[in-house]
């Protein structure tokens, strides 16, 4: 995915506005004012507010792919890799909460094929990486084989999403990493074979 430096500036500014006031209050007029240029200049880079959000989601997806590949190279054992995957997400969203806001903003915008596609792609990238590590954990005997890998992926992703939603709803009022690591301990206890 190719994003120009100016487009990256715009999506970051849009993300900050979403973080501050919510997606409903993000307008191209407010965004142009934040960027200190005209709405017409904004439209040279993006066709619409939705296009900005979709680009944010695509940029996040590219980041997830890159970070998960790096984790896979650093951690070869399934349990430490699963933990490192989520530590990477916690660190990323702590540093860039605007991308988390973009994910949840899709709940408040009118459904569109482009928005749905961007969210599905993000979820699929997460699923692929989780399927690999959970599948390897099942083969090595670290993770239970009594529950199919796809169901375990669903459970892990759901736990992560709920944790991120709670963090957002609290106004980012707790330590996402500390609480997230406790949750991962619980998840690994549930799916693990070493009890």
Task: Tell me about this structure.
The chain is mainly α and 195 residues long. Helix content is 76%, strand content 0%. The protein contains 9 helices and no strands. It has helices spanning 5-21, 28-35, 39-43, 49-74, 78-95, 97-105, 113-140, 149-169, 176-191. The longest helix is centred in the middle third of the chain and has 28 residues, at 113-140. The protein is elongated, with a radius of gyration of 18 Å.
List keywords for this structure.
about 200 residues; mainly alpha; Tetracycline Repressor, domain 2; 9 helices
Briefly say what this structure is:
With 195 residues, this protein is mainly α. It has helices spanning 5-21, 28-35, 39-43, 49-74, 78-95, 97-105, 113-140, 149-169, 176-191.
The dominant shape is elongated
| Main CATH class | Mainly Alpha
Derived structural class? mainly alpha
Please tell me how large the radius of gyration is: 18 Å
How much of the residues is beta strand, in percent? under 5%
Q: How far from one another are the termini?
A: 43 Å
Helix count, per DSSP? 9
| SSE order, one letter for each helix or strand | HHHHHHHHH
- Most strands sheet: none
**Low-confidence parts:** none
Total domain count: 1
Mean pLDDT: 91
**CATH level-4 homologous superfamily:** Tetracycline Repressor, domain 2
- Roughly how much helix do the residues carry, as a percent range? over 70%
Q: What's the architecture in CATH terms? A: Orthogonal Bundle
CATH topology: Tetracycline Repressor, domain 2
Number of strands: 0
